[in-house]
Each structure stands twice: as C-alpha cells, then as structure tokens.
Amino acid sequence: MPALDYRLGIDVGGTNTDAVILDRSDHVLAKAKVPTTPDVTGGIVAALDAVIATDGIDAARITHAMLGTTHATNAVLERRRLHRVAVIRIGAPATLGVRPMFEWPADLTAVVSAGATVVPGGIEFDGRDLSPFDGDAVARFLATVAGRCDGVAITSVFAPVSPRHELLAAEVVKRELGEVHVSLSHEIGSVGLLERENATILNAALTRVAGDVARALDQALAAHSLSPVTFFAQNDGTLMALDHALRYPVLTIGSGPANSIRGAAFLTGRTDALVADAGGTSTDVGVLVNGFPRESSQGVEIGGIRTNFRMPDLVTIALGGGTVLSGDGQDVTLGPQSVGYRLLDEALIFGGSTPTLTDAAVAIGRTRLGDPARTRPRRELLEAAARAADTRLAEAIDRVKTARGDLTLIAVGGGSVLIPDQLPGVSEVLRPDHFDAANAIGAAIASVSGQVDRIFQFGPGGRKAALDEASAEARDHAVAAGADPATVEIVELEEIPLAYLTSPAVRIRAKAAGALGGLHAPATTG
Questions:
Q1: Closest CA to 231 of 255, 202, 208, 254
Q2: Is the pTM value of this prediction over 0.85?
Q3: Beta carbons within 10 angstroms of residue 257's beta carbon
C-alpha cells in the first residue's frame, strides 16, 4: 500500500454529492459540492472534477480514495440493478412454519428471488446439530435454479454459534454452480433467524450494485490518471477495502449518516454529543459515543424488510433545505416532498416558484442566500414553517436521547442553516468549520473496523477465554478489511449473559478499529 499523502473523500447524498481532499495532517485542502445526478455516477464524476480543479491541488498526490454512497439503499428502494438470488435456509424441520422471504414486499420478491428452499440441518444454541445437514437436498435445489440465479444466500439456524452447516452448504454450491457469489449469514447478521436471513439475501442481491459503483469510481479516477487505493465507507462510521465491499455491499447501507457523525467528531474534537445532519431532503439525528455512531439495538427496516445487521441509531425526519412548504400561516404543511437537487432552480430566493425550508431560513434571518426580497410575499407561511420545523427537530432530538439533561448538538450538512441556535434539551449548538462537507470528511478520516456479534459457550477458560476469542476475531476482521495490524485496538466490548440455558453461554459484541494499512495513526482518532 502506498504511503499516505492526499486523501480524497466522496459522499453521495440524496441532494448533493460532496468531495474533499485532506493532506497527511488532516487539513482540508479543497472541497466541492455538486448536485447528485439521477444516475448518481454523474454526480461522483462532477464532484471529483470540481475538487481536483481547486487551485493548488496536485491530483497526482492523491494516494487514497474513500467513498460513501447511497447506491445500495437506492437500489433496494427503487427495485433496480438487483441480482436474482437462490435462497437456502438450513433448518428443517424446525423452521418450516415460516418460509424464507415471507414478509418481503411482493414487487421486491419478484425482482430478487430465483427460488427458495428449507433443507434439514441447523445448529442448537450450544453448538450441537439441530438435525443432520442434508447436502443432497441442497444439490437437488441448486439443480432447479442453475442458470437462473446470480448469487446464493445461505442461512442456518444459530449460525452465529457455529457456521459449520453454512460452510458445508457453500462447498455444495461451489461444486454444483461454480464461482457464483455466496453470502453466508454468520458473516453478516447476528442472532435472530428471519432478520439475519433477510440481511443475507439483500447482501447477495446487492453485489451487482457494488460492482457498478466500484467501476464508476475507478473510471472517474482513471479519467484523471489517478490510481489511489480505494475504500468504501460502511455503516458503523469506518472503512472497508474494495474487495471487502464487493463481498459485503449490504454494509454500505446507512454509511452516509455514519460518515457525517464521524465527520462531526473530527471537526469539533468531541467524542460524545448529539449530531444533526441536515441535507436537502431529510435530517438525520444520531448520537456520537466514544467517537463513533451509536449503533441501533433493534432491527432496522430497509425497503420494507426487517434486518438485524449493524446500523447507526438514527431518527430521520423529512426536513431538509429542499422540503416543499404548502398552506398558510395558520395551517402549514412541511413536505414530505422535496425539490432535492433542483433547489437552485425552484426555491423562491433563486427565482423559482416553490416555497422551501431554505426560503424559510432566509426569511427569518438564519442565513443569507439568493434574493431575500423574494420571500416577502410568502413571509407568513415561511415563518410558520420555520417554527414547525424547529418543533419537529426538537421532537427528534428527544427521541434519540437516552437520559435526562441537556447535551451538545453538532450541526452539520448543507441544510444545517435550518437548525436554530437554541433547542429544548440542547445545551449548545456547535457549527464547525467545513460543516457542509462533514460527510465527505468523515469518509476521508475514517479508520477501518471489524466486528463480532455471536454466542460463545464457556469452555475451560471460562468468561475470559470467550472475551479474548471474540476480541481476537474482531481484530482479525479489521485487518482483513484493510486495517494496519499495528494500530488495531478494541474500541467496543459488550457481553450479554443468556439465562435459562443448560450450559453457560454469553452473547459477545466486540468491535476493533485501526488506521488504514501503513498509516500508523491511533485507531480512535477523531
């Protein structure tokens, strides 16, 4: 891996695509913000062109490029560019009562499913076989989907305890179908069969999307004769190497807000705070804990599908700079429609005819943009909208807080001019320099992580041996994702005892983080 010089961070949002260039001392040398294009890739190219064109930037010094993207999320929501997946659940006869994908929306099932089966096998919570694995049943099913599937998703009962049956099934797939992509649930989700299965199927379906994004970024860089080492941002605020992203594309879902939270920590030096990331379409309110986004403790729904892989704990509200306003001063409606990347054409202050929350911020003096005189005919509506937006934001902040007392709020994102200086439950509002590019900065400065979340049985070494094993696995995952082994350290370790079992067991969540390979920076730098 080349020695660090310049880092390029790119983050694709629903309204804008941001790019920044940082030097080896983490100083922001250049930044650019361009409208996100309908094909998304065009926005990446335009942002790269703009940031490289900044005076004094020697593009040849860019050694590392980091991308946070909404491609995976949009592909699920829009049901496009998804692979067809053959689904194998190892859990008969115990799990026959609920078929795979039974809660999926019909239109998404039609796009993704190449067929599904439940075969005998599975693991007990203590690692014993629930029933013998039936490789012949797997082979017979694969014969029915050969030539009709682009990938295979394999899920076994209690795979987080032991992946033994999933690995056996993967061997059958390789023998029968050759080098087709295989997603294994123990590598993606945690305890909870149906949610873990859903996440595994989504992962297999998204591999084409990840490949498309990787090629688009490579082509954009090649157009400038650049060949930096490329990383993708993932949804815990850290990075993963390109080959890791191509294998686990589902982990890029939610990376945008996570980047912003990490960027907020870096720009302010705070490790614990509330963060509001306001864009053109929505505002994400999250919590910064020990320099990283607080993870959700509950399953997250994506495109109508329940999953249980790691995601930042966020409250998202449909308030952004492009949010469309309607009604009058007595009865105002905020969105949920947004003019999005058309803000410069449609907002009142820019000569358009659509009242937006950006117009409201200008009307009440929170920011200076465009022509403020154009807000006067709609002033009553705009002032009422600003009050209603403040109330909605305060409610979102209250929902993410877990304890009483006022906390610091870091306001970032291009739409953060909408956020008032005083809010209930907030002791102070910080607006750091480069707040409008916090997402791209968060991608550029992020460390690389690995995580383990599974059940451990207590052996001869007892609790300490289980914690040590989980920590070692997390470190190994971080190194595999691209972290420098010399800098990797455990940044989170949680154990949840499991009661009412015949043998002692504990669920352990361990997270390790380290600097990019060869950088030798502290793992928790923020």
A1: 255
A2: no
A3: 29
